[in-house]
């Protein structure tokens, strides 16, 4: 079961990289500006090592399925629905890199109605949910910390570039970065 699950998640990430590469070529052909090239290899390394370390922890310490796995599966499915929703919401603009089309009209629908960076929230949750499903708590803690470190570089860099090249500040003023706040109507 573990190998089937991990294989599915890795396959999903590879498909996403293919989509991102195709989208990158398209948006760059329109004049998109790339920022954050210096930290991107570290981000790729963190995401790749996540699977390696989790597999090593599960194998070395004979980790088994968590007693609360049904709940974790529900959370995992919710994150995957969110991930797919984000990819479809952004369409050809979705990418793993920071690629900004100057003066582009920013997306304000989908999960972007509630928070600035829903994709980073999904990844943050996955770094907890996926390893906890197999009681790989070392992996969950380590990669949650590494994710906080890389996002503390990436998010300010992305927001500064968006503010410089688009109407980001006006559109997303008052919206939280990662934790949604539902407004009372």
From TrEMBL:
It is found in: Membrane. It is a multi-pass membrane protein. Gene3D superfamilies: 1.20.120.1630. The chain crosses the membrane at residues 44-61, 68-88, 120-146. One of its GO terms (molecular function) is methyltransferase activity. Pfam families: ICMT (PF04140). Keywords: Membrane, Methyltransferase, Transferase, Transmembrane, Transmembrane helix. GO terms for biological process: methylation. PANTHER family: CONSERVED HYPOTHETICAL MEMBRANE PROTEIN, PROTEIN-S ISOPRENYLCYSTEINE O-METHYLTRANSFERASE. This is Methyltransferase. It comes from Anoxybacillus andreesenii.
